[in-house]
Queue: 2 jobs
Job 1
Amino acid sequence: MPVRPNNNIFYAQSGGVTAVINASACGVIETARQHPELGKVFAGRNGIIGALREELIDTSVVSDATIAELRHTPAGAFGSCRYKLKTIEQNRAEYERLIEVFRAHDIGYFFYNGGGDSQDTANKVAQFSMDMNFPITCIGVPKTVDNDLPITDCCPGFGSVAKYVAVSIREAGLDVASMCESSTKVFVLEVMGRHAGWIAGAAGLAAEQEGDAPHIIVFPEIPFDKTAFLARTKACVDKYGYCAIVVSEGAHYEDGTFLADQGTRDAFGHAQLGGVAPALANMVKDALGYKYHWAVSDYLQRAARHIASGTDVEQAYAMGKAAVEFALAGKNAVMPIVVRENSKPYRWSVGEAKLSDVANVEKKMPRNFITEDGFGITDAAREYFAPLIQGEDYPPYENGLPRFARMQHVLAPKKLPVWK
Amino acid sequence: MPVRPNNNIFYAQSGGVTAVINASACGVIETARQHPELGKVFAGRNGIIGALREELIDTSVVSDATIAELRHTPAGAFGSCRYKLKTIEQNRAEYERLIEVFRAHDIGYFFYNGGGDSQDTANKVAQFSMDMNFPITCIGVPKTVDNDLPITDCCPGFGSVAKYVAVSIREAGLDVASMCESSTKVFVLEVMGRHAGWIAGAAGLAAEQEGDAPHIIVFPEIPFDKTAFLARTKACVDKYGYCAIVVSEGAHYEDGTFLADQGTRDAFGHAQLGGVAPALANMVKDALGYKYHWAVSDYLQRAARHIASGTDVEQAYAMGKAAVEFALAGKNAVMPIVVRENSKPYRWSVGEAKLSDVANVEKKMPRNFITEDGFGITDAAREYFAPLIQGEDYPPYENGLPRFARMQHVLAPKKLPVWK
């Protein structure tokens, strides 16, 4: 392949970060370094904002050893952002600025590591850059703990959260089982998932035998039925002595009201934003009188690199690597995906999806993954989830703590006026 | 040593369980099995309640392999309880019942695996049994995530929570750092510790360089100063772009009011029990307007066997082993303890404390472990904490999840009337 004049790469992380998004970055950078026809990899400081501000982190000054450490470093080593480009009609100036920055830094490749919104943006940039007569090869790199991207079998980032929540509810379940005779009888763990219950569902893997935690899963896909929920909770306490519950943050009533919206007010009349876990726990206490405990794992779950899934790390890296290979093969406006070849034994390969097919489509849990009563997962779900949490990819430890990459952000010298 | 007629052992787990209390049980049972002069080890079903109810789990029918698995199984494999015996004057019948059950089952040894209250009980049983002319050898086995027992350098269970919270805040801190440019700027992690800030303090180990998370620790030992706290939070956001906070559940104002007591009421006028993390997060939001996230790890932290400290597991096992050896050496009303010989390199040995010296004394963080401003830990604290989180003692995994012991509770046939 002939060397392009604009053979530098722009890579950006987008949206909520994960335990393995840096493994994708590692895949991009390590693969690019193996190809002399490619130039430098610039990473956007704080994602796409870094391109608009011309804050380009020059990864070429970072040692191979530090780049290798990205594979086991959680969160976004270059910074991410919650910033969605408007449509070209709404804000053409933003797109023009992107092209201007890319042109100024000889950037011919744009790898966007994010979810559905980001792939929509990448797709628009691909089209717009052609219109501007400065074609940029745009390749998506999938990422989201929510696991809600279409076409790909799963999303890098999800498997590690899945493993974290399944391990955590197994451990906490044993704790409650120990205490329930004279103390805590109900435990509620709140997990992420505003629209889709993939994470909550994966926690169900912890239950392998009759009576194992979790006993109840509350999904956003199933409107919350308080009467049925309380009856099930009581039945579990009666039968097993305790009840361990996993609830999606997005759990809601039939009318769309979130369970987390408790309608409480503080001394000044401000609405009090509780989590859904304490809301459910209080509901149980009020109705059934059981002593409870609750946990909200929040960022802990998606940052938990210490218990990352081996499958997830491998796939995250492979997606980054494939993005570079796709670009070198002349592909454009596509995203590598995970294709499941077989579940038992698990075999997967790298496939390809058009960005236009990925953008802005949200994949929810299929109804047949949820048991008929709405509180558990089916065998079909188990078959889907099980391979995704396989393998323990432990980071190295130093002084009892995981040693993560410390990435210096050396910016490429600016060449353009300040962007506003 | 001549074989005593009452050479059976009664072992019980007491109070809140930990990631390594079963490692102590493993130490007791494996060591007892090596001594033919000792009889069966009975474990109280749900702790001391099991003795009162004559529900004695016969561990002699459990395979060596399953007993070995206890070493890596969190929570209380035989059940624990929150039940404190009254004084002998208040409820002599309970003590008489214990002796009656011990006599009926040829039990001459009582190993009580718990905190200060439990050691007080064990001490009383030792004295009472002599008065009853049926002397029982009573040995304590230390346990508590709160790390608040006196004399011993640390308490089994603490090191693993310490490791969990330090790892978690390091990981979540990186997450917030990634997002802070356009999203979350403040993250609050609530950890256990109602009276003592040992756990919160240990989280401080995660900060090794200027700017590392956590930036603020809120201790129960230091009355909460809202003005100083908010000023510090703002200073961190200004300087580092974000602020990661660890707070003890027991954090309180000068007048003793807990931060977690938000004074909120639900639709029915019931007091709403929030966690301290959401309370602090809301305080920051109201005063400074920063977007926040918060997590409450609750049972997850003390059950987190998947990230247990190697030092902690080793010490927990050693305490159980030493309890048996103490008993065989004719000691009574004592507890093995951890003696720190040296910090760098860490060396420790098994020592001994009288139960009467351990009972009902609560060890708080020394003031010189907390920085003068009250929001951090000193070098002295680091030297103390560091060895306790060393080493990763990973459990075995099966299908992507830790494989823990599944303990069948086979009860010894009852010989006495039902206890009420």
Job 2
Amino acid sequence: MREKIRIGVDAMGGDFAPKNEIEGALLALDYFKAKGDNSVEICLYGVEEKIRKVSKENNFNLTNLKIVDSPDVIDMHDDPTEILKTKKNSSLYKGLTAVKQKEMEGFVSGGNTGATLATSTVVLGRIPGVSRPTIAAFFPTINPRPTLLLDVGATVDHKSRFLYEFAIMGSIYYKTVYKIENPTVALLNVGEEDSKGTDVLRETYSMLKESNLNFAGNMEGRDILKGSADVIVCDGYVGNVILKFAESFKNVLKTKIKDFASKSVSNKVKAGMALPALKGVFKEFDYQEYGGVPILGVNGISIVGHGSSSAIAVQNMIIRAKELVEFGLVQSIEQSISINSKSN
Amino acid sequence: MREKIRIGVDAMGGDFAPKNEIEGALLALDYFKAKGDNSVEICLYGVEEKIRKVSKENNFNLTNLKIVDSPDVIDMHDDPTEILKTKKNSSLYKGLTAVKQKEMEGFVSGGNTGATLATSTVVLGRIPGVSRPTIAAFFPTINPRPTLLLDVGATVDHKSRFLYEFAIMGSIYYKTVYKIENPTVALLNVGEEDSKGTDVLRETYSMLKESNLNFAGNMEGRDILKGSADVIVCDGYVGNVILKFAESFKNVLKTKIKDFASKSVSNKVKAGMALPALKGVFKEFDYQEYGGVPILGVNGISIVGHGSSSAIAVQNMIIRAKELVEFGLVQSIEQSISINSKSN
């Protein structure tokens, strides 16, 4: 018999919690069932009374879900350090503690990213050899596969050792998701020559060249969407700014097309036809489709999604969590960090 | 009688030189003439023989343009330090030297940005009080006015004093171009709270808060295209990456729309209508329209444009140069740096 994979869901994370979270968990169960896969058990962490009430209102059948009552409620304004001190009975803290204690194999949350990052780091601890956990994001490209950019905001400090570890973790993660042997890894810089950039970037360049990664050299801002490399590494200040810049592009384009439409009847017709075409295109820029991102470098599977995660997004996060457990993400990172730390 | 404003044009800079450069100079003369403005004299710096040959082929009338023969030719692979040593008879070096010696009031070039930056810095020198010259770029927003982002690649080093000076120079430049009294200035960061970011960002935040600028606090990547502030300041690593990322967006969108079109006849019709709508929108994302950018912080007017500058872009660079001379950009920066250095 296959071993069970137990995934915890933060039923209180996300702007539409617990509705989307419960629905997402049920969708995930359906998905696995349709594949004839009975290995996954899902457990909802949250205020039990609320979970039951919302389920009743929406005709959700809770029979196949476990519920762990977690009465403390985190709100968006809670400081991460406060949560760690005063909200040990929150869904986030209890769910991650269950992962730590091997009662769960993974945990997914659409709650506050900062709080999830901090709580995961403290409760799960870091993988031996990892200096800083990191969060990565996929960007659509003109190729079939997206580019993974990291760090996108977990660590703003600009240090070569951090960037080097991000490269190792990003490479392993890309390998897990896209099942390719040796993803290309590049360093985000202001030009391609190895002399470019800050001292830290030049130092990182040398370290990556010496590593066992498939290092493709320096790349520029335009290479992200071109898909010039599978994994592109930068510090969290740059990565966070690009991620938020990219996410805002859609709205600006929409506004500009509306302005264009308002100028003439002929423009209005053109714009009306343009929007459905763009809708298809922008679906790829929808980060929810990717089903959240793991906090790489912590000693356990913890996945964080957008606050506005839909039920489908929650479903995708659970599927992703199962995949990462099966692949052995944590063990692979530990191994790769250990091998690559000997040379550097 | 009004004093003459003499603008030098690098006839050898740019991918289509000298054709677009000569044509752009003639367009600028027409533009000023149509406004009844006889104050501007334009001088072409380049290989005279080539300028005369290309003008003959294209029926360009050189009567109202001066030509200064500059036989040394810079190519895209020339190292900036080499140019400074061995190519003193190049259009770039001679034109900038003319500005230094008050024979010209400004110089415009569509040549290599790195070479123009280095040569401008060495030949013109820095404005007293300026640590590092900077290059800024306009981004279209959902508002009528664009956002000015700087630095976009002149200085990758992340130091609070540099960022602070960029803010001062950006504010003055925005004021010149958009004729508004007190442009808002923000610091690009990973969150809005003043505790966010690196030590350097927190230090810069305090300095900007104490300055006489219209400081609007920290802003995030999404605020650039939103137009949340007139001027947004960051280090050259971040700025360069965002600029190149934004420029690549158009091509990715085009590729994605073509993929969409190829899927069905109905998609093809929709996409065919979408493209003209997008063309209008992307015109605003065309950095050429803005007519190049000045190298801020050097002791003279030096404007750099895209290598692929069209004749219209060259015309706009000349018009912009004249505007900056009239406004007294250099003097205004010197004054503002001096006032704001007392408090910091």
